[in-house]
Amino acid sequence: MGELEIRNLTKVFNDDSGDIVAVDDFEAEIEDGELIVLVGPSGCGKSTTLRCIAGLETPTRGDILVDGNDVTDNKPKNRDMAMVFQNYALYPHKTARGNMAFGLKMTTDLSKEEIDERVEEVAAMMGIEDLLGKKPDELSGGQQQRVALGRAIVREPEVFLMDEPLSNLDAKLRTQMRTELQSLQQEFGVTTVYVTHDQTEAMTMSDRIAVLNGGQLQQLGTPLECYHEPANRFVASFIGSPSMNFFELELDTAGSPTLVNETFEYELDDDVYADVEGTGDRFTLGIRPEDVEAVPADTRNAIPAEVEVTEPLGDVTYVYLNVGDQQYTATLEGDIVLEAGRTIHVTFPQEKIHLFDGDTGEAVR
Ligand code: ATP
């Protein structure tokens, strides 16, 4: 078992400029075998959260429990966790075998033969037997990261903690290692907390994503929940590429309920209005680029937009448009050529629009 519970985790750093709340009341229950990705912009508190779980930082408040046991005051080596870092942190003078064996020598009373056997078993499962006699400077970045992973796996921890483990690899290797890492995690079934700032990595690898901003947890949900039902404007803008488009609008209920700003009007369907009625009169409308539709000018809710640039990607085309003084993106199917400066009409299907409270940014629909 490796159930991990994080309760009210808060970490405040004090430096010359005052208090920095790096992690603010973070809570999560992570199931045995689950892979959770902590994601968010630089400085949002991902690494600090992970380091508190690992015991490398002392929380200001809060508790860390593994299988119901409070490990908050335990030393890192007594938490049954193994950490994998971005820079691999291999010992340069030890071989891959020595590196993989080292943690076991320090934390268990296994004999040399037993340790050798376990290292070889894991190396075979990972297909890195040939590397065991080599030192880190004889290994490529990808091979070093495999050894660093192997070192974590041989310890058979309850929990893996990974801090941007793939970020030093080139794009192609990163994609390959992502798949490898995922299948290893599933094979060994080890509960994993994985930190990245790369939302593609978060979307593709995780069972659930924890989106952080300014030390605060914004949403904890499956990748598709965070994508389709973002809890607020921040999550909506962070998850998805190219990013969701946003428009600030006011609700006009003089006639049929309509969202308006200085450049366009968008009449709401009854069921959409029913969702937002009474929640305020200023909204942010969000629409993902792939949900923007090109339509004839006389379509209901057609919005005129000036084409700025088109970027053909083969299967789809990114079209950068200007509506008033605001630029936004439409992802249109196929290979489309549109002249810069030309005016087209687009609309946002009602079932695809997201509406956020104009003041708080919380999702209202
Ligand atoms: P990145 O993606 O850039 O690594 P992160 O999301 O991992 O960022 P953290 O490294 O956890 O963010 O930092 C969160 C906040 O805490 C930042 O404002 C950072 O400057 C601050 N911080 C982190 N460690 C310390 C420290 N030892 N002393 C003071 N402030 C710190």
Task: Give the structure's gist in a few sentences.
One of its GO terms (molecular function) is ABC-type transporter activity. This protein has 365 residues and is an alpha+beta fold. The chain is 26% helix and 33% strand.
Q: Kindly report how far apart the N and C termini lie.
A: 38 Å
- What is the 3D shape? elongated
Main beta-sheet strand count, sense and barrel state:
6 strands, mixed
State the helix count.
9
What is the mean pLDDT? Answer: 93
Topology as a string of helices (H) and strands (E): EEEHEEEHHHEHEHEEHHEEEHEEEEEEE
| Bound ligands | adenosine-5'-triphosphate
Kindly provide the radius of gyration, computed on alpha-carbon positions and rounded to a whole number of angstroms.
25 Å
Oligomer: single chain
Q: Examine the coordinates and then state which fold CATH places here, giving the name of the CATH topology of the largest domain.
A: Rossmann fold
Task: Give the tally of β-strands.
Answer: 20
The number of domains: 2
By CATH, the architecture of the largest domain is named 3-Layer(aba) Sandwich
Q: Which blocks of ≥5 consecutive residues have pLDDT under 50?
A: none
Strand order of the largest sheet: 6-7-8-3-9-10
Q: CATH homologous superfamily of the largest domain?
A: P-loop containing nucleotide triphosphate hydrolases
